[in-house]
């Protein structure tokens, strides 16, 4: 019989997944944080990342629809409000659209999700479907990329402020807010996974779910790099430089 790892050893296994596979290791992040992205490459990132941001509350709603435990529902539902907003909190989606305006995009164009790369759409939709269809343990474990998010948000704030004229407290408010939201979410999610992954098979399932989520994030940056970094290969139907600009709306 397989013996499950101790709680500490299993947590270390999950953290190693982030150290080896999180998308802060992707070359596109080096370009973005180092100020080496052109304005259009930044816009492409904003447009495609919006699709991911907009589907997070849909993913969480799909998860909640399957949860019978009121305590788990109470703990999880704040994630939807963090993105969609609530009284006194404009929400992460609105903050992302403010970033879109700051980089010169029409926020209505970005919110329409027109021009999103096919690979971005496939990866994000696969994540929503994963959370809707797999076990609750796997669904919660897939959210644990948040373990690694505060570090990347802090690095992104520093890099964007240093290298891009559009970057200021208003345009980067999404990332600043996540510095306080993500630790709360991940503390609950990590504890829940460690409590419920109580067999070797369940630990393997949880670890594989986290790997799947890192693949979702990595594939989005692969798509961006392929489409918009030389030699650019923009697929049919995807955003092209000059489209969806705020000036085009006024003209």
Q: Unreliable runs, pLDDT <50, ≥5 residues?
A: none
How many domains in all?
Answer: 1
Counting H and I runs of at least 4 residues, what is the number of helices? 12
Radius of gyration: 18 Å
Pathway: Cofactor biosynthesis; pyrroloquinoline quinone biosynthesis
InterPro entries: Haem_Oase-like_multi-hlx (IPR016084), PqqC (IPR011845), PqqC-like (IPR039068), Thiaminase-2/PQQC (IPR004305)
Function: Ring cyclization and eight-electron oxidation of 3a-(2-amino-2-carboxyethyl)-4,5-dioxo-4,5,6,7,8,9-hexahydroquinoline-7,9-dicarboxylic-acid to PQQ.
Enzyme class: oxidoreductase
How would you characterize the overall build of this protein?
Its EC number is 1.3.3.11. Belongs to the PqqC family. It is a single chain. By secondary structure, the chain is mostly helical. It has a single domain, classed as Up-down Bundle (Heme Oxygenase, Chain A), CATH 1.20.910. It contains 12 helices and no strands. The chain starts with 6 loop residues before the first helix and ends with a helix. Helix 1 runs parallel beside helix 11, helix 5 runs antiparallel to helix 10 and helix 7 packs antiparallel against helix 11.
